[in-house]
Design goal:
The structure is a single chain. It contains eight helices and no strands. With 142 residues, it is an all-alpha fold. The chain has one domain: Ankyrin repeat-containing domain (Serine Threonine Protein Phosphatase 5, Tetratricopeptide repeat, Alpha Horseshoe). The protein is globular, with a radius of gyration of 19 Å. The N and C termini lie far apart (48 Å).
């Protein structure tokens, strides 16, 4: 939409040119928009939005934010246990993926004090080493 506004600003443009630009650019813009919408939905525990994205095949293991955090990381960080369970059990996202800094969703849950999410992730194999998550939790509580 922004790109379309910039190209048409200040001068008349034929309708066919506008349609062509939207066909060329809208999939990329939609992909970028979804990559920001998915972590937000996970942080807010918006399971309905995530279900729609899963049905539209937008929600997958490739969706990550700029720091490499998946929707699972965002749900764990925000303490949204039902959303976290949906993402891992129903959407099939890995519960032990790593961010760019090496943190797993269990690390994020521990760092933010979301013990229910941490416990569930540890019982589901959501940390590559359970010891590292416990050490991280103890360190963050000090």
């Amino acid at each position: 939409m922004l790109l379309l506004t910039l190209t048409t600003w200040g001068r008349p443009v034929r309708k066919s040119r506008i349609q062509l630009q939207m066909e060329v650019f809208s999939p990329r813009v939609l992909s970028l928009e979804m990559s920001f919408r998915t972590p937000l939905a996970a942080r807010q525990g918006d399971e309905q939005t995530l279900k729609v994205q899963l049905a539209e095949k937008v929600l997958n293991s490739d969706v990550k934010d700029l720091l490499g955090a998946s929707p699972v990381h965002h749900a764990a960080r925000a303490g949204k246990l039902t959303c976290l369970r949906f993402l891992v059990e129903e959407a099939g996202l890995p519960g032990n993926s790593l961010e760019n800094n090496g943190a797993s969703p269990a690390h994020d849950a521990a760092a933010t004090g979301n013990l229910a999410c941490l416990q569930w992730l540890l019982t589901q194999g959501g940390c590559r080493t359970a010891v590292s998550a416990v050490i991280f939790l103890l360190h963050s509580l000090q």
